[in-house]
Amino acid sequence: MSAFSRFTPLISALPSTVPFVGPEALERQRGLTVQARIGANENGFGPAPSVIETMREQAGDIWKYNDPENFALKAALAAHLGITSANIAIGEGIDSLLGLIVRMVVEPGAPVVTSLGGYPTFNFHVAGFGGRLVTVPYVNDREDLDGLLEAVKRENAPLVYFANPDNPMGSWWDADKIVDFARALPESCLFILDEAYSETGPAGSLPDISALIDLPNVLRTRTFSKAYGLAGARVGYAIGVPETVLAFDKIRNHFGMNRLATAAALAALKDQAYLAEVVGKIHAAREHIGVIARNNGLSPLASATNFVAVDCGRDGAYARAIVDGLIQHGVFIRMPGVAPLNRCIRISVGPKHDLDLLAEALPKVLKAIG
Predict the structure, then answer these.
(1) Which residues contact 101 (CB under 8 A, 6 or more apart)?
(2) Which of 7-21, 32-46, 133-147, 269-283 is predicted with the least confidence, judged by mean pLDDT?
(3) Which SS3 state, helix, strand or coil, does residue 70 take?
(4) What are phi and psi of 90, to 5 degrees?
């Protein structure tokens, strides 16, 4: 049977794809059970008990739509950050917000600057709206700020994407460098500063809110998926000047937010003591992953995120063999997608049980592949 005949030319030309193969798909494909889910940069320590209790208490209200203005969550975030509600847009995770931002700015054929090997979902959205990706290679496993700026100016690009701390390498730039980059951009280029891992980086890596809040061409995106342990709830937010943030109301799905997810985010924001505790666990787990890597002759890279990129010392085929070998032992990890980053594997933090399974399986896999 043929496909529907009146899809747009763009949709007809695009491949049907999922940017990430999930552990569930691997279980179905390979007939196995994932025992250590340490590949998707989730927070295996989970949300605060107070968050779970809040969701239980409010589950009976799930028949109601969420407030389409997201008033309570915007107010809570504004108070937490020291800005106004008008500076904040709420969305179904950063992924949804990225799609909206691309839709706002990118016309078919427009150049969009990002890093070669950076976050694939952003690229997915750019392709979906007909943009033309202009990629800049990493330098020393960090995104190249000078190269990104040069590409923006050369291409007269309306949009540039940069993550700090970075996915997939876990690297970071200090806050002053980020501010300098933002202020050096042409006013006609919108800067997406993806700060999904903002809570887990070193103190000097996160620009103060006040440092960028006056720039109309900057949108900072953050999430409850990582340090707050709510990846499945899909709650993200963007920070910018009110006039820029207001554009989200032109195209967003006003009833897209899940009512229980919103309640969970509010409870998580209140429980800063738990956040501090879990960030400590993340730091300790990064160290644990580093020890496991070094014990097996591999080189962990310094990380500011809730994962560790591990240099396997050879090429992408070797790293892929490690990833494929580990899943046969029930250990799910991932790897960067392009050279030279794909010489690495990427291991998310998790409870001791998960990392112990990694420590047991990794030497077996390395011995098997030679």
Answers:
(1) 159, 190, 192, 219, 238
(2) 7-21
(3) coil
(4) -105, 140
Residue 347 CB contacts under 8 Å (≥ 6 apart), including other chains: 38, 39, 289, 307, 308, 310, 333, 358
At a CB cut-off of 8 Å and minimum separation 6, what does 196 contact?
94, 163, 167, 221, 222, 223, 225, 226
pLDDT of residue 3: 81
CA–CA separation, 151 and 278 (whole Å): 38
Q: Categorize the per-residue pLDDT at 18 as very low, low, confident or very high, splitting at 50, 70 and 90.
A: confident
Tell me, what amino acid is at 92?
E
Condensed to tens digits (0 to 9), the pLDDT of residues 19-32 reads 889 999 999 999 99
For the chain, what's the residue count? 370
For a pLDDT cut of 70, what percent of the chain falls above it?
100
C-alpha to C-alpha distances, 17 to 21, 153, 232, 234, 239, nearest whole angstrom: 10, 31, 21, 20, 30
Tell me 106's DSSP state.
P
Q: What angle do CA 356, 361, 364 make, to 5 degrees?
A: 145
Residue among 348, 343, 290, 349 at smallest CA distance from 320 = 343
Give residue 1's pLDDT: 73
Say which amino acid occupies 7: F
39 close to 334: Cβ distance less than 8 angstroms: yes
Asked whether the predicted pLDDT for residue 150 surpasses 80, the reply is yes
Residue type at 317 in one-letter notation: A
Q: Which residues pair with 132 in a beta bridge?
A: 111
Element (H, E) at 219: strand 218-223
Amino acid found at 319: A
In order of 31, 123, 166, the CA distances from 161 in angstroms are 38, 10, 11
Q: Helix or strand or coil: residue 28?
A: helix
